[in-house]
Amino acid sequence: MRTTHLLALLTAGTLAAPVAAQSYDGVPLDSRGNPASLVSGLRVEPRIGYERVIAELNTETATDSNSVREAKSGVTYGGEVGYDAQVGSDTVLGVYAGIEGSSAKTCASDLFFPDNGDRTCLATDRNLTVGARGGYLLSQTTFLYIKGGFSRGRLELRNTNAAVPANNFSEKDSLSGFHAGAGLQTSFSPRFYGKVEYVYTDYNGYETFDGVTKTSLDFSRHQVNAGFGVRF
Question: pTM for the complete prediction?
Answer without folding.
Answer: 0.77
